[in-house]
Amino acid sequence: MTTPSTPAPTLPRLAAPSGRRAPLLPALAQLILAELRRMARNPMFAVGTLGFPILWFALFGLPNVRETTDSGVNVGQYLIVSFGTYALLSLAMFSFGAAVAIERTGGWLRLLRASPLPAPLYFAAKILAALLFSALSLTLLYSFAHFAGGVTLPLGLALTILAKLLLGMVPLIALGLCIGFLVNPAAASVMANVLSVLVSFASGLFVPLNQLPDVVQRAAPYLPGYHLAQLGWSAVAHDTTHDLTHWLWLAGFTLVFGSVAVWAMKRDEARGQ
Amino acid sequence: MTHSSSATPPAVELVGVSKRFGPVEALRGLTLGIRAGELTALLGPNGAGKTTAISLMLGLARPTAGVVRVLGGDPAAGGGRTVIGSMPQESAIPQALTVREAVTLFARLYPAPLSVDTALELADLHSVARRRAGALSGGQARRLAFALAVVGNPQVLFLDEPTTGMDAGSRLAFWHAVDGLKREGRTILLTTHYLEEAERTADRVVVMNAGTLLADGTPASLRSGVAAGRVRFSSDLVLAELQALPGVDSAEVDGAGRATLRTREPEALLVALVQAGVSFRELEVSRASLEDAFLSLTAPDALKA
Ligand SMILES: Nc1ncnc2c1ncn2[C@@H]1O[C@H](COP(=O)(O)OP(=O)(O)OP(=O)(O)O)[C@@H](O)[C@H]1O
Ligand SMILES: [Mg+2]
Q1: How many domains does chain A divide into?
Q2: Is residue A122 in some structural domain?
């Protein structure tokens, strides 16, 4: 411990305020790095978003990866999309639901608001970090399916699925933000858990939709997870006739969840303390 | 009041500011100017409105009525944030980052930050620089919050109860750092419940209670405002004789002849005692402290006066 008798470190002279801002890119890079560190260092989060999808694939997928569905789609590839979608869904719920709730109530968000950080940069960094982490999660799942199950996605198809799922993840991120700004951390964490499992189940990610009860089948088209998975499955099946409909649904969800999230954020901001 | 009508405008200005939270009136018509380059201590009992005043100055909340200006602008517009640092009352730190990572992150948000090592040194954090923020002790977390407040090399610093939870050594190091910051011409506003710290370091003390200003001046001027210089001794004098001594504001005496006198001029009182040839024992003289001033200002009956 330094004693007060040591001379204070030399401080640069005070510069006159110049209206200058910090360069954006280094700030963005640091924020993304901080997000990635947060995600990687939280064992529950890393296991939940990287480990569970692979575990589910191993338990439910490996026994029948070589089969083909009635419509001639390889089951292994189909399941990569299913569990990949599940991974992104839970990542969005936890990274934007639970984590934002903690940052908001713990005062970190308030401290950032008092700093010169432009608010959009905070969200941009969070979204970019989540996309990077999602890409990692999908890559691990692809690799596991390849090495442990012999299921190989041709490079072009692998990249198409990656791109579609990441882009289609936007409404899930918006939903996560709604949770993060509306409920307290304990409730947010429960909601993140429940939503990622329930939505996944009802979207046909764990059990194919046609084997689910009738009510669930009828409810599925109102869930963002369903449309996201459909976009991935359509790539696997090389049948993209309905893609536009699914994109439109996802855009609609983005609009709704996004508006609620912005409203909730403004409400939180107006509280001030 | 020592208002100088000098040309430099106040760094922070509150004019007739009120802030309401539902039924609670946290601030009532508060008018206050914080002069540039000074260390101002904002004092007041719990719930006085100190944190509320700071969040208005940071532009985090808007006043219900009145005007808040920081460096000549509206703080809520955010224009001045590159030259403002703040340390909230509750340490807000990113649990998953190490101390060094957190300070580095914050440095990147400012156009002309201090070096990370300088900030770590100012906050006496080098020994825990690699520790996760979530694993810090309460006092260490305060020091990290201080490092985050200064790393941007701000011109104006708002420190809300900075030393709460710090041990004696950390407090000394903290005040040492604050002295250095002040010498460089920074404007510092801090709140504290440690009045002896405010007395020692502040250029100016502002006392508030229930959302209004009670007193505003140098620590010395506030002390002299209360007749709380205290002289105690044992003698054979009776109450009437004690009250007749020069400069006595109030006098008490107990059954054993132990007298307690309050006076603004203890020296004159002692000279008079000696000249009168009174024999006295167990003499105790204590100066009015800022704490005495604070207590008499914020005592419930002082409000009516
Ligand atoms: N968000 C809020 N909602 C409702 N009431 C609030 C809110 N923030 C503050 N208050 C009330 O406003 C008053 C002033 O609170 P403030 O936090 O400013 O006090 P303080 O002087 O900082 O006290 P302390 O020394 O305990 O930190 C208190 O009565 C408090 O209960
Ligand atoms: Mg307070």
Answers
A1: 1
A2: yes
